[in-house]
Amino acid sequence: MTSVGTGAGTASDAGTAAEAAVETATAGVDGQPQLAVVFVAPRYDYQTVVETVRAETDRAPLVGCSTAGEFTEAGPTDASVTVTLVAGEGFAAHVGLGEELSADPEAAVGAAADSLPPVVDDDRHRVGINFHDGLLGRGEEVAMLGYQQRPVPYVGGSAADNFAMSETVVFANDEVATDAVALALLSSDRPFGRAVDHGHEPFGDSLTVTDADGSVVETLNNRPAFDVWRETVRPRATETGVDIDTLSPDDDAFEELLTRFEFGIKTSDEECKIRWPGLTQTTDGPLRFATQIPEGTELFVVDSDAEAQLATARRVTETATTTTPTTPAGAVAFDCVCQGLVLGEEFGTAVDAMAEALSAPVAGVQTYGEVAVAPDDMRAYHNTTTSLLVFPE
Length: 393
Description:
The protein is 26% helix and 37% strand. It has two domains: 3-197 and 307-392, no CATH class; 201-303, no CATH class. The chain is α+β, with helices and mostly antiparallel strands. Helix 1 runs parallel beside helix 2 (46-56), helix 3 (105-113) crosses helix 4 (139-149) and helix 7 packs parallel to helix 9.
């Protein structure tokens, strides 16, 4: 049987916060932990947290990242250390790290995968976790490279730093690194549950990316990208009481509107994967995204509100629990920081809905982008989306 425990700790120093999180999480597991998933708010010293968790768990394999928010089934926490522990005789985990991700993503992901066992054709069930630098702007590429190295379903996300946009880090066993990717390969004798969902609906006409450089889109339909976005969302922005034509990047509403009115790329199954333009810092023309947007991409502006995000939290959990035939032991959720912005004070209600639908411990992180890739779903990288992993009991 697999057991899962979660815990969150807040204190003035990193070591005390980490000890408190591990102590609470340990109470939920039966036996020696075989995996620690660790989320750390930027106010703490990351290395101290990692060293403390490793010492307190008898050096269980560890993977995690810096955050823009954390939560457990008890609710959202205020700048905490959050720890998820997994134990069970039928469960195993391996972790690897690749550095200098910006210089050579393929080499970095390959280095991380070198520490993972090969995927063989047996009766084991496998899933991967992918954490990577959230400021690199190449999340889709890194997600697909991880899948190519070890072709199993993946969850995970882009590390965050609470909107400082300065430095994000990932953790792999004893190591803490920026400009890096951490991969974990988990195996179990019972199937994992997974699901991904976002709750956005497209509106308006399709828009074609006509000039782009990496994650920066200069023009849509051969016009300045920001101008096209502003014209498309103006009627709905006006309904919220915002004069979008006088909006400045210094206004709180600037980030809020870029987060609510994002973009969707329709996939072959008529679903959308969401693209967040929230790294935009000017109204002078370009839109800056959290991942690459190739020229020729067809985009739609999408909309979501708190009600839609609350429904998504419950729906994604119910879907994930139905994909494993056993009772859930617990879960880890990878939520976009944008969902927190859309939900505002209702974010705790979404966490409650997730915990109620799961009826088991759950811990989560707010990231700068979410990984969800599988043989039957190659959308790979998302924004303002929940990617959920359920551990089988």
